[in-house]
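User: My advisor asked me to double-check a structure prediction for TVP38/TMEM64 family membrane protein before group meeting. I don't want to rely on an old file, so could you generate it fresh from this sequence?
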Amino acid sequence: MRLLRRKRFWLFVATIAVITLISVLFLKGWFINLRSWLRTLGPWSIPMFIAVYVLMTLAGLPNALLMLGSGTLFGFSKGVLYASIADILGATACYVVGKTIARKQIKKWLAKNPKFLEIDKAIARKGWKIILLTRLSPVLPSSVLNYGFSCTKVKFRDYFIFTWIGMLPVIAFYVYLGSFGFRMMGREGSPQNLLLQLSGLLATVATAIYTTRVAKRALAQAEDAA
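Assistant: Sure, here is a fresh prediction for TVP38/TMEM64 family membrane protein from the sequence you gave:
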């Protein structure tokens, strides 16, 4: 039974890896055009990327594409750095907006989301742990969490620190896919190097799936305890 579970797990990992790789390659033209445009901006390319990311976060739009783009445009190390800065700035902006000008509207919106109401109860007992676990497990979109936490008793310090920590693995995952996809577009390296990169992709996907499972399990236990 255990062997069967492992086989299913790795089959699932391989399937996700192939799907994400195809998605990145499908967006090849878009990434190349964006890269060319950002290069024309010179030193303003990084602030522009961060500004677009923050605006999309405020608008509640999915930011996975921009995480992929960060890996494609800047490579893995710089991509993680710039995307994490942009992500925490966007999350902070949502928190401030939710605490001030849009508080009433957001509370009405959250009242229709039973999943967040369950999380809100758990926050009362295990505040920072819930922030961390919800960031690691995709139980709710980031936009719901960004605005939702602003209407709870979570302190800004805890929100900032554990949002940043919790989002780092997610950002690293998407940025790696973006940088890997760009290397594949250019067909860089020898067959041995390509095999090494594919192994890295599988390991990255496997780690992301495993982390998500563990976080979802821990979050469910925290909600039950609440």
